[in-house]
Specification:
Layout: E1 2-6, E2 17-23, H1 35-40, E3 50-53, E4 58-63, H2 68-82, E5 89-93, H3 100-111, E6 129-133, H4 144-169, H5 177-186, E7 193-198, H6 200-205, H7 209-215, E8 223-229, E9 238-249, H8 258-261, H9 269-283, E10 289-299, E11 311-313, E12 319-321, H10 329-341, E13 347-352, H11 356-362, E14 366-371, H12 374-387, E15 390-393, H13 398-402, E16 411-412, H14 421-430, E17 441-445, E18 451-452, E19 462-463, H15 468-483
Parallel strand pairs: 1-6, 2-4, 2-5, 5-6, 9-10, 9-13, 12-16, 13-17, 14-15
Antiparallel strand pairs: 3-4, 7-8, 8-10, 11-12, 14-17, 18-19
This protein binds ligand BES and zinc ion (2 copies).
Ligand BES binds at residues 249, 267, 324, 326-329, 353-357, 359, 414, 421, 447.
């Protein structure tokens, strides 16, 4: 789907369909040409509500305000309606206030995603082009050239999120650690990106006993994937992302009940997100050195499986008592975080579908942010909100920290209490963060929003690419601040 911005008036653009947003239920705006019909069919223009007037090709979508995220949602809704028609082209007037053009375009691209890989009969969308008119828009404030570069960035960001969705939605039979490594290697076709893939021999040599234990009962060997983006200009900052890449989480011997195992193909969402962020950052030409480290493995059962009662030794020498093999993500991340700190990052961000407790705490649409640095948390909170992603901070405290004590090893892989599980998981990771990186580290628990089995916001049922947009927004903002 091609998106074009033009200075042509809306009337002079020839397309089969017309998209009109009804802002704040105001049916009296001059762009609303079918007030009577809309009233007759009882269209209330609630936000995320849309209707197609098939006779004339008009699509009306409710949009609560001109705020970026409202426009993003309305654009996604409009595309979802358009995709069900046979229209090849659509036009829309600009609802641009300050920087909402990017959000509008992101909405179109995000809403256009569809996961069809396993459908034997699919009808490809006929939609080829969306044309945005800058009519009624003060061209003295932003030139067409600037708008086009906003458009390019928006497409990169939304396509990166869609790229993560495709990885996460792919079935575990097809998406093994080796497949993940192959996809990471493919990213090297983008300028500035290189990739190293490490196998189990490397993990043994590096004494990554926690990561290796999780992999033991899987027929698929593990991979530690390290993708790097080096900017053309001299980098001011080194940002290292670490992603949980559990291509399947059965729970291991602490086996998940059947109902909870379904959707655990999505336990690779952190890994998919960090790959997508790297792809997006490279395409945006950001002036930072960025690394994505993915711990890719399955968590399975079998005679060879790691067990509750096993004691593991992580890369940093700490011993871990396994009390629940389903708390495997933190084991993989422990070793990957140790590896990541060897790169001497200025910022260290890990992303993981780490705990069901985070979903209980915040609901399934919100990412939990944890870490010591309030400024970093606040910055990410702001960027996430602008990107249309929901986040909320969960705070550490000394009492929760004590709950990870073990009688037989340095630390236990689960808390003594079932309350506060998202935070105790993060505090487990904290044991693998060296003192000098404590203030540079953030942990994002994306267990809720990464995969939701119903349509919500700009997202389709299934993977949402959680964490991708917020981090790309954040990196772009860091870049703007750098320029100041
Ligand atoms: N991958 C799961 C967490 C998860 C749950 C992600 C729901 C997405 C949706 C993780 O490995 C897990 O099983 N965590 C356990 C930890 C517990 C054993 C301390 C959990 O959350 O129940
Ligand atoms: Zn688990
Ligand atoms: Zn898991």
């Amino acid at each position: 789907m091609n998106i074009k911005i033009t200075n042509e008036t809306l009337e002079n653009i020839d397309t089969q369909a017309v998209i009109t947003f009804v802002i704040n239920k105001d049916f009296n705006h001059s762009w609303i040409k079918h007030k009577k019909i809309l009233e007759d069919v009882n269209f209330k223009a609630e936000s995320e509500d849309g209707i197609l007037l098939a006779e004339n090709g008009y699509i009306y979508v409710g949009c609560a305000s001109l705020q970026s995220d409202e426009l993003r949602l309305a654009a996604a809704k409009a595309i979802k309606i358009l995709k069900q028609t046979s229209y090849k082209s659509a036009k829309i007037g600009s609802y641009i206030e300050n920087n909402s053009m990017g959000a509008l375009i992101e909405g179109f691209v995000l809403g256009n995603y569809e996961f069809t890989r396993y459908k034997s009969k699919t009808e490809p969308s006929k939609l080829e082009e969306i044309i945005i008119s800058t009519e009624s828009y003060n061209q003295n404030t932003i030139s067409l050239e600037t708008l086009n570069s906003i458009k390019d960035n928006a497409q990169i960001i939304a396509n990166a999120a869609n790229y993560a969705k495709e990885i996460v939605n792919t079935a575990p039979y097809d998406y093994t650690p080796i497949q993940m490594a192959e996809d990471a290697l493919k990213l090297t076709s983008i300028e500035g990106i290189t990739c190293k893939v490490f196998d189990e021999k490397f993990l043994e040599k590096e004494r990554m006993g926690a990561f290796l234990a999780v992999n033991r009962a899987s027929v698929h060997p593990p991979r530690l994937i390290h993708v790097t983006y080096m900017p053309k200009e001299k980098s001011k900052k080194r940002v290292v992302f670490v992603g949980k890449g559990l291509t399947y989480d059965s729970g291991g011997l602490s086996l998940k009940p059947s109902d909870y195992m379904v959707t655990m193909k999505a336990d690779k969402s952190g890994g998919a997100a960090v790959m997508a962020i790297l792809k997006g950052a490279a395409e945006l030409n950001l002036p930072f050195e960025i690394h994505a480290i993915i711990g890719a493995t399955e968590n399975m059962i079998g005679g060879n499986a790691y067990k509750p009662d096993d004691i593991l030794t992580a890369k940093n020498g700490k011993t871990i008592e396994v009390r629940n093999t389903d708390a495997e993500g933190r084991l993989v991340l422990a070793d990957c975080l140790c590896y990541a700190q060897e790169l001497k990052p200025d910022l260290l961000i890990d992303m993981a579908t780490l705990t069901g407790a985070c979903v209980v705490a915040l609901g399934e649409y919100t990412t939990g942010i944890m870490g010591y640095n309030d400024r970093l948390k606040h910055e990410l909170y702001r960027a996430a909100t602008q990107s249309g992603e929901l986040v909320n901070a969960l705070s550490f405290n000394r009492y929760l920290k004590k709950l990870l004590k073990s009688a037989v090893a340095d630390i236990s892989n689960v808390s003594l209490s079932r309350y506060g599980g998202a935070i105790t998981a993060a505090l487990f990771l904290d044991n693998f963060i060296e003192e000098e990186y404590k203030d540079k580290w953030l942990h994002l628990d994306i267990a809720g929003p990464a995969y939701v089995e119903k349509e919500w916001g700009c997202n389709q049922s299934g993977a949402s690419g959680a964490g991708v947009r917020m981090n790309l927004y954040w990196l772009m903002q860091q870049n703007q601040e750098k320029d100041k």
